[in-house]
C-alpha cells in the first residue's frame, strides 16, 4: 500500500476484477472523489507459513489406560547340562531298633504297633533274629567284647541277650549257629566269683553249662558265652563275640 496525501485530488484505484465474461488480466479504473488513499490490488500471493503448533501450551496428562491382556507363556527352555556328581556324604550313625509308632488325635494318644506286623520287619526277624515267648532276639552280625555288646544293645533300645529258660536259650542258639559265631549273654560273676547274675543283679534261675563249666581258667573268666550247641562256657570279658540283643515283644 502506498499512502499519498492529496487535497482536492483524486485517488486512483487500480483494481483487478475478474468476472465470468471478462479478461482476468483486464484492469478496471475507478475514480472516487474525496478519497485519501490509493490502493493498488494485484493478484493474490501465498502468505508466510504459519507456526507448527509446537510452541503452544502442553496439555494436561490423561488418565492411565487399562492394563493390557497378558501374553501367552513362552516355550520351555532346553534342559541345562548334567551337573557333576556331588561329594560323598559322611557315614551315618548306626540305626537303632524300630520303636513303637504313635499318633496324637484330639489330645488322645493312640498306639499304632506297626513294626511287629510289618512284612519287612518279619522278614528281617526271620533272617537275623528269633522270637521266644515275649522276647525277640536280634543281631546285625557285628562283634564286640562284653562291654561293647552291652552298649550296642542299649543304644538300640534293648539289652544283651539274657536267656531265662530253655526256649529263650534255643532262640539264641539258632542265631549262633546261623552266624557260626559264639555270643556273649547277659550273665557274669564280675562282682562275686562263682555267683552268676543277670545285669540287673538278679541271680540266675536257669543255666545250661557245658560239662566242666564254669571253671574260671586263669582266674579271668567272668563272662558267659553260648556255643553253637547251646551250651554255656565262662569266658574272659575282653574277647570278640557275636552281639545278640533282646527286645520285649510289643
Automatic annotation (TrEMBL):
> Is Transferase tagged as a keyword?
no
Where do the record's region annotations for Disordered lie? 47-92
Q: Which PROSITE patterns match?
A: C_TYPE_LECTIN_1 (PS00615), C_TYPE_LECTIN_2 (PS50041)
CC terms in the record's Gene Ontology section: collagen trimer; extracellular space; multivesicular body
Q: Where is the composition biased (Low complexity)?
A: 70-84
Q: Which UniProt keywords apply?
A: Calcium, Collagen, Disulfide bond, Lectin, Signal
Q: Can you name one GO molecular function term for this protein?
A: carbohydrate binding
- Which residues belong to the signal peptide in this entry? 1-22
Basic and acidic residues composition bias: which ranges? 52-64
Which residue intervals define the domain C-type lectin in the entry?
A: 146-246
Task: From the Swiss-Prot or TrEMBL record, give the protein name.
Answer: C-type lectin domain-containing protein
Which organism's genome codes for this protein?
Chrysemys picta bellii
Phylogenetic classification of the source organism: Eukaryota, Metazoa, Chordata, Craniata, Vertebrata
